[in-house]
Structures are given as C-alpha cells and as structure tokens.
C-alpha cells in the first residue's frame, strides 16, 4: 500500500519561509500564503490530477511532497511513512519518489537506457530493468538512442520510464505534456496512464488543463485559494461541482439565478430538477452544463433567446444566446451540423438534473 495522505499543508513564500530571494522582491514579514491547510488523500495505485489555475500553488505542492521545499505546517505520508511533519523533513533522495518534470530533463550525455537505469541501485538488475521500463512505455529497442535522437514525446516516455525504474512509492508528474503539440499529447497521455496503471504506481499529475485532468486521472483534485475545493472522480467533479467556481473552472458551465425548494429550482428557463434537494432552500445558483440545454422552435410561450455567437469545434459547436430574464448570456452545446447565425431566434429548454448552490454565481 503506498497511498498518499496530505493533511493541513501550509506553505508561504517570503523571507521567513524559504521563498524568493530575488533582488528587488518586496520583503514582507508574513509572506504570501500559497498552500493554506491543504488536505488530499490519494489511494494506493491511483492517478490523481491536481488541477488549478496558473499560480494557484500546484508546483509548490509538488515540491513540498518531493521534499524540495519545507512546509510551514501539515503532514505528508506515503504508505504510512511520514515524510513531512512538524519536526520531520525526510530529504528528497530518501523519499522514494519518482519525478517526471515538464520537459524530460534527460541527462544529455547518457543513452535512453542509461538514463532509465540511472536510479536503479541494484547493479545486476539495471540493464534488464531499463529494458523492461522502456518496453512498458512503448520504446523497446530505443535504449541505445541519445536524448537528442528522440522526439519530444519519446523523451517524455523515457523520463517516465526513468521515474518508474527504481519502483518508487509515489510518482509525481509536473505538467509533463506541456511541451508536446496537441496531436502528440493525446497519445503520450494514454501511454503514460497505461504505464502507470501497469506498474500499480500511485501518482500525482499536476496540470492546468481540465480536459487532460478529466481524461487521464482516476481522481481530480481542484485547487482554489490554497486548498482542495473538490476531490472526486472526473465524473463527480464534472456532474456535481462543489461550487460555481469549480463548475466554471472544470468545463463550461451555465450558471442561472434560481430559487430552490425540495428537489427542484425555479429559473428563467423554467423549473429544473435538482440532483439532490437543496441543503439551503431559497435563492441561489443553479448549475447546468451547456450540453444540458436543447434548442427548440421558438413558440412564444417557452423560454427563448437570440444567438449572439457561434463557435464551431468540428465534433460540436457552442452557441451563445442572450435570453430574456437573464443578465448573463447562456452557452448551449449542439452537434456541429446545426445552422444558426448571430441574430437568429431560438427556443430552449433544460434537460437532466442540475446542481444548486446557495449564494451568488461566483461565490
Ligand atoms: N520561490 C518563490 N518565491 C516567492 N513566491 C513564489 C516562489 N515560487 C512561487 N511563488 C508564488 O507562489 C504562487 C504559486 O506558484 P506555483 O508555481 O506553485 O503555482 P502553479 O499553480 O504551479 O502555477 P503554474 O500553473 O503557472 O505553473 C505564485 O503566486 C508564485 O508567484
């Protein structure tokens, strides 16, 4: 069992917190709190994506887990072994953590096989282990190549093989697909996911890309204001966002003012069934996804709107509508064949069930 448990992790940057010493950086006595009591559990063998906007502290979290940064408070344990706690700081090289950085960062003077073998301490097993790992990441036969003879995607696979070779307790991946173009990304992502699952490794992948998090991970942890705003399966996070902020960050959201009572909410688009009865009935925000709105012929009696924008994505399109009774425009996802133009009138009605949160949309 190598589950990762993080509890109450706090980290501030500043003169007293091991932060920036860049000349000219304003000095503060309190520092900037980046992680603010963050807690997260990743079960053994799962791949968790840590998802959040730029600057929310994802890299800081990874660096604290890896031991490159000291936490101000909180604990990190892997497989029951305490790595970080008040008075305890296991150095990075003794944490048994494999790291896949943003861009391979392979040793340029070593072949792919020697890069992979680098951290394997059992000399007799090195070569065989390197071959096994290269095969696992789909690069059997590439062991003799030097890093500059490999494509970006192949370099990232070698970096993963290198991280996995010493059979670490935990693997950390820091935006590992950033440098790859989008055509290559999907393939490398799928291979990385398969390799991680094949070894049964517990892994944390940092990303700001919600599609990547939803498509690759077993668990998605959304970071907001130094804490985990929501952690769940990709489906849970998408279909039951914990707040309007999470809904807007993870995918596109339709946020409607509404009044909830029992299991339904009344909105400008009619009465919508809720996934769960509102904890606090009354006024709040009803959250739907753009694919939950259907366009209909405008009848004059049902909700209707005017098309203000059409964005075509090939497999589908998103139509933005200005709707009577709603301050904000509403996005509707439709299949790519629909022919609507700005200025056209259309009826619309919600389908499926919504999530309700007491309070205004951007709470
Ligand atoms: N050494 C440092 N000294 C002071 N502030 C820092 C230092 N490193 C990071 N920060 C600040 O801490 C915050 C979090 O940075 P971090 O790199 O962890 O974010 P991130 O979520 O990984 O961002 P990105 O997605 O852009 O890489 C940012 O506001 C950043 O400016």
From TrEMBL:
E.C. no: 7.6.2.9
SUPFAM superfamilies for this protein: MOP-like, P-loop containing nucleoside triphosphate hydrolases
Name of the molecule in the record: ABC-type quaternary amine transporter
InterPro entries: AAA+_ATPase, ABC_SmlMolc_Importer, ABC_transporter-like_ATP-bd, ABC_transporter-like_CS, Mo/tungstate-bd_C_term_dom, P-loop_NTPase, Transp-assoc_OB_typ2
Cross-referenced Pfam families: ABC_tran (PF00005), TOBE_2 (PF08402)
GO CC annotations, alphabetized: ATP-binding cassette (ABC) transporter complex
PANTHER family referenced in this protein's UniProt entry, alphabetically: SPERMIDINE/PUTRESCINE IMPORT ATP-BINDING PROTEIN POTA, SPERMIDINE_PUTRESCINE IMPORT ATP-BINDING PROTEIN POTA
Cross-referenced SMART domains: AAA
Stretches assigned to the ABC transporter domain: 4-250
Biased composition (Low complexity): 18-31
One example GO MF annotation: ATP binding
Region described as Disordered: spans on this chain: 7-31, 341-363
Keywords in alphabetical order: ATP-binding, Nucleotide-binding, Transport
Organism from which the protein derives: Actinomadura soli
Top enzyme category: translocase
């Amino acid at each position: 069992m190598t589950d990762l448990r993080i509890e109450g992790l706090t980290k501030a940057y500043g003169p007293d917190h091991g932060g920036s010493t860049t000349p000219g950086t304003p000095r503060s006595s309190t520092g900037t709190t980046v992680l603010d009591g963050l807690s997260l559990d990743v079960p053994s063998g799962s791949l968790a994506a840590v998802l959040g906007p730029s600057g929310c502290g994802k890299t800081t979290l990874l660096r604290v887990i890896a031991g490159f940064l000291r936490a101000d408070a909180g604990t990190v344990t892997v497989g029951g072994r305490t790595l970080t706690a008040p008075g305890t700081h296991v150095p990075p090289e003794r944490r048994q953590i494999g790291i896949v950085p943003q861009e391979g960062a392979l040793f340029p003077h070593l072949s792919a096989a020697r890069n992979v073998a680098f951290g394997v301490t059992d000399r007799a097993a090195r070569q065989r282990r390197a071959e096994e790992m290269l095969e696992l990441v789909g690069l059997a036969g590439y062991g003799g190549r030097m890093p500059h003879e490999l494509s970006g995607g192949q370099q990232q696979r070698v970096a993963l093989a290198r991280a996995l070779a010493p059979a670490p307790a935990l693997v950390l991946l820091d935006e590992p697909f950033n440098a790859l173009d989008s055509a290559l990304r999907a393939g490398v992502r799928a291979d990385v996911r398969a390799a991680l699952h094949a070894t049964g490794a517990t892994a944390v992948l940092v990303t700001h890309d919600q599609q990547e998090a939803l498509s690759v991970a077993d668990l998605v942890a959304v970071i907001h204001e130094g804490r985990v705003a929501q952690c769940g399966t990709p489906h849970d996070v998408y279909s039951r966002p914990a707040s309007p902020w999470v809904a807007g960050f993870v995918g596109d959201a339709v946020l409607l003012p509404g009044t909830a009572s029992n299991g339904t909410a009344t909105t400008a688009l009619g009465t919508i069934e809720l996934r769960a009865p509102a904890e606090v009935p009354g006024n709040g925000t009803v959250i739907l996804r753009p694919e939950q709105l259907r366009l209909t012929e405008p009848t004059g009696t049902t909700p209707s709107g005017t098309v203000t924008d059409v964005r075509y994505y090939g497999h589908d399109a998103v139509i933005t509508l200005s709707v009577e009774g709603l301050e904000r425009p509403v996005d509707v996802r439709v299949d790519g064949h629909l022919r609507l133009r700005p200025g056209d009138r259309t009826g619309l009605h919600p389908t499926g069930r919504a999530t309700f949160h007491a309070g205004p949309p951007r709470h």
